[in-house]
């Protein structure tokens, strides 16, 4: 069972390079109780691509979630909306 919800949506925009990308992740349980990390990414306004990773331990999913978050922040992705950016 997932202890707490994990959801992320970030965007990277640069009008001078015609760059408008999104990246979304969430950790949710599957029907068998395993933790699943689902990633979606692509150009803003499209459905993009989807990849799902399944883990027996929630901590393994959280570790990958946090590692991918660090990678995206280094590449310039930022949270949008009411979420405070860091």
Automatic annotation (TrEMBL):
Listed Gene3D superfamilies: WGR domain (2.20.140.10)
Superkingdom as given in the UniProt entry: Bacteria
Domain WGR: 5-86
SUPFAM superfamilies hit by this protein: WGR domain-like
CDD domains linked to this entry: WGR_MMR_like
InterPro entries: WGR_dom_sf (IPR036930), WGR_domain (IPR008893), YehF/YfeS-like_WGR (IPR049809)
Xref: Pfam families: WGR
Protein name stated in the entry: WGR domain-containing protein
């Amino acid at each position: 069972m997932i202890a707490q919800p994990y959801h992320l949506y970030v965007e990277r925009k640069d009008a001078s390079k015609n760059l408008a990308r999104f990246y979304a992740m969430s950790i949710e349980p599957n029907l068998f109780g395993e933790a699943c990390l689902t990633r979606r990414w692509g150009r803003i306004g499209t459905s993009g691509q989807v990849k799902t990773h399944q883990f027996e331990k929630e901590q393994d999913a959280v570790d990958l979630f946090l590692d991918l978050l660090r990678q995206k922040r280094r590449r310039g992705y930022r949270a949008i909306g009411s979420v405070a950016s860091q």
